[in-house]
Amino acid sequence: MSRPNDDLPTVARRVAAGRKLLDGVPPAQVAQEMGMAKTTVERYRKLLDEGGLEALRNMSVGGRHSALDLSDLEWIAQALRGSPRDYGFDADGWSNARMRELINRQFGISYSRVYAWQLATRLGVSYRLIRNG
Questions:
Q1: Which of 31, 78, 96, 100 could make a disulfide contact with 38, Cβ separation 3.0–4.6 Å?
Q2: What are the residue ranges spanned by the domains of the chain?
Q3: Shortest CA distance to 11 belongs to which of 62, 64, 77, 73?
C-alpha cells in the first residue's frame, strides 16, 4: 500500500533498494546499481528481515524538525495553489527555486532544493512545481 512519504525521494529510493533485495539481488550489486554505500544496503537488508518494506518506509527521513509551524506550512501550501505573480514573481508557474525564494522572503529561512521538494510533497502541492524552472 502506498503512503504519503513514499513520494519523498529518500523513501522511494530506500524502498526501491528494498525491493531489489527482496528479489534476491545481492547487497553489493544493489549498492552499485543504486549508488549507495554497501553498509547502507546491508542495514536495509537487516530491516527488511525484521519488518519488511514497511520497516524501510518507517525509517526517519532525517534532518531536524521544521522551523515552520502549522500555520506557516498552511500559508505556503495556499500560496503555491495560487499564482507566483501574486507574490511578485514574473512567471506563471511555480518552480522549486521560486518556492524557496518565497519561503525565504516570508520567513527568512533558506531550504535546499531537496528539502523544498519534500516539503511541497508533504503539503500535497508538489504537482504545482514545474520540474525545470
A1: 31
A2: 4-57, 70-130
A3: 62
